[in-house]
């Protein structure tokens, strides 16, 4: 019995192997194979017999554009120094006096502008939030950063009476009494 079973088993394995190997080739039909065409690159390119030549031209000198040589510097009609030798001329060199004139800063408009220094806050974020709130309310508010604190300033404005009225309004809004100061444009 064992030999009959073994022969059936071997036959079944052979049939399955034939089915797996041969049947897909039969059922696929004709196969088309694609072959890419390669272009061969020559190892050494062919060089034409004619070689390009270029003519290098000499630069042209324009003597009319150059100043006459040697260049001389003159002060009040006297020859002072030549560029070629770099030495002083035998004639006496005139001394030129330089005067330093101090310009005094004049501010003819000392009483022309005023500001309100509302408060000085240590927290910069609070100062900027207050400035934004005042700007929304129509005030010309600014924050000036100092070393340890931030100043909240209203103005500048040329009308002192207008700022005095705003002092009262700002005291009601913020609860802080500001100071009316003269505006200094160079050091606000």
How would you sum up this structure, described in words?
By secondary structure, this protein is an alpha+beta fold. The protein is 29% helix and 18% strand. The model is unreliable at 82-86 (pLDDT under 50). One of its GO terms (biological process) is cell division. It holds the Pfam family SPOR. The chain crosses the membrane at residues 6-27.
Write the layout of secondary structure elements.
Layout lengths: L1 H20 L1 H6 L43 E4 L2 E5 L31 E8 L2 H13 L4 E5 L4 E8 L2 H15 L4 E4 L6
Antiparallel strand pairs: 1-2, 3-5, 3-6, 4-5
Distance N terminus to C terminus? 118 Å
Low-confidence stretches: 82-86
Q: Report the CATH superfamily of the domain at 114-182.
A: Sporulation related repeat
Mean pLDDT: 77
The CATH class of the domain at 114-182 is identified as Alpha Beta
Q: What value does the Rg take, in angstroms? A: 50 Å
- CATH topology of the domain at 114-182: the name is Alpha-Beta Plaits
Q: In sequence order, what are the helices and strands, one letter per element? A: HHEEEHEEHE
- Order of the strands making up the biggest sheet: 4-5-3-6
GO biological process, one term: cell division
Keywords: Cell cycle, Cell division, Membrane, Transmembrane, Transmembrane helix
Domain SPOR: 108-183
Protein name: Cell division protein DedD
In short:
With 188 residues, this protein is an alpha+beta fold. It has helices at 2-21, 23-28, 124-136, 160-174; strands at 72-75, 78-82, 114-121, 141-145, 150-157, 179-182. Helices cover 29% and strands 18% of the residues.
